[in-house]
Amino acid sequence: MFQDFKLVGDRPVAIQVKEYVKRLIIKGALQAEQKLPSTREMSGLLKVSRNTVIAAYEGLEDDGFTYAIPGKGSYVAAMVGQSAADNGGADGSAAWQIDWKARMNEYAVSAVELDMMKQGIRAKEGTISFTSIAPDEQLFDLGDVRRAFMDRMAIEGQVLLNYGYAKGYKPLIDYLMHYMENKGVDISGKEMLITGGFTEGFDIVLSALRPSARRGAAICENPTHHTAIKNLKLQGFEITGVPMERDGIDVERLEAVLQTNSFDLAYLTPSYHNPTGIVMSPAKRSAVMKLMMRHQIPVIEDGFNEELRYSGAHVAPLIATAGQGNGVIYIGSFSKVLFPGLRVGWVLGDQALIDTLESIKRARTIHTSTIDQSILYQYLLNGNFDKYVKKARTEYKRKYELTKAYCEAHLPEAQLSGDGGLHLFLTFPTGVNTRQLLEACTEQGVIFTPGDKFFIQEGEGTNTLRLGFSRVTDENIEQGIQIIGKQVRSFLKA
């Protein structure tokens, strides 16, 4: 015994010794009432200092795993030693086993089936991956983030470590309300809820708007964000997709669909749409809002990537075009622009709606991490955001233009779309199945995201793919696109 102890990493040695002995007790290798080796003995067995063992033994006693008898030494506590045997351990009795898969309800099973990350490709080391549209961490200004953390902790650190408010951290709410007002939003009669990123905000809104007595009906662009598709389906919504044109959703098709069907909500991404990257034109924004108002359909607007505009004038979000109207629910975050590790997003909408969403949020998670919110607030307050976005926009624009140029050179068969953001969307002739193309490219060390996962109906978009470039080096962008191009041509010749 004690021969398998090995120090790992840079954790305090006393903690490693304590956890090692604790594992032996839990497994039953050390029995109840058994005397532990003396601190001098144990230090020799584990090849650590005696003071380290003394600290470890004190920790074990504090945790209730051992007890000490003055002048005699340390012993294993009886209640801990018995637990393994009571549950099918040392005494040979059958362990208590439950078939958890059989216990899962329809929601849980559907969540697994719709989990694209579990079904994704596990890339080998050295693979050129165009699958991510996360920001490039090399651009993160760690010094400014560290300063924001220290500044805020110095001001109210003890408060931040306690419970917060379900609605959110008020200084951040006030800042973001002003931020949205600067986008042209009329904030009168509106409130804000801080959430753990876009996805939680979207899920909370859907759970509030889901009909009780029937399946819900939702309308959205086709293709659209696959996470939105997943959450709509999990919340029991039937989804109707409307095709995209070069300047946004097909308004004529949208109008035709609205005349023949009734819907509980619409989900739209008007700026740097995921996956197409298209920015809806001002004329279409106005037309869409008139249709939604006429049919009294609430709009959930995804503020995806709005800050990554590479050219042209700012286009106001749909919630701004609504004026004092309350029919648009705006969900935003900085995850694709700033730091996705800070899980902070927001929902902006009518006061009565936000009041209800606040109660749902409180019931589910109590509140979003106050420390995360406060770091983001101080970072914004310190004036770092504009500086960072300017740097990020310059770099991503360069990569966008580079990727676009390589696609035009090596993938002339593909129709490109994408006006900004961190990706391009490619549509190939119908003879190219991008699932099969992915298999061929994977063997050559290149992966991307097949476009069919963004479409509403199975079998749609099988000739499309999304190419994320934000975290790919210039050299790999060119090499990867060349490889994709060669495989595409072999598919077209077949």
What does this structure look like?
The chain is an alpha/beta fold and 494 residues long. Helices cover 46% and strands 14% of the residues. The chain has helices at 13-27, 39-46, 50-62, 78-86, 100-103, 106-113, 116-119, 142-160, 170-181, 197-209, 226-234, 251-260, 282-295, 318-321, 351-365, 370-381, 384-410, 434-443, 474-493; strands at residues 66-69, 73-76, 128-129, 190-195, 216-222, 237-245, 248-249, 265-268, 299-302, 328-333, 345-350, 415-417, 423-427, 446-447, 449-450, 464-468. An 8-stranded mixed beta sheet has the order 4-11-10-9-8-5-6-7, with helices on both faces. Strands 12-13-16-15 form a 4-stranded antiparallel beta sheet. It has a two-stranded antiparallel ribbon with strand order 1-2. Helix 13 links the parallel strand 8 and strand 9 (299-302). The radius of gyration is 28 Å and the shape is globular. The protein starts with 12 loop residues before the first helix and ends with a helix.
Give a quick rundown of the structure.
With 494 residues, the protein is an alpha/beta fold.
Which helices and strands appear, and what pairs or packs with what?
Blueprint: H1 13-27, H2 39-46, H3 50-62, E1 66-69, E2 73-76, H4 78-86, H5 100-103, H6 106-113, H7 116-119, E3 128-129, H8 142-160, H9 170-181, E4 190-195, H10 197-209, E5 216-222, H11 226-234, E6 237-245, E7 248-249, H12 251-260, E8 265-268, H13 282-295, E9 299-302, H14 318-321, E10 328-333, E11 345-350, H15 351-365, H16 370-381, H17 384-410, E12 415-417, E13 423-427, H18 434-443, E14 446-447, E15 449-450, E16 464-468, H19 474-493
Parallel strand pairs: 3-14, 5-6, 5-8, 8-9, 9-10
Antiparallel strand pairs: 1-2, 4-11, 6-7, 10-11, 12-13, 13-16, 15-16
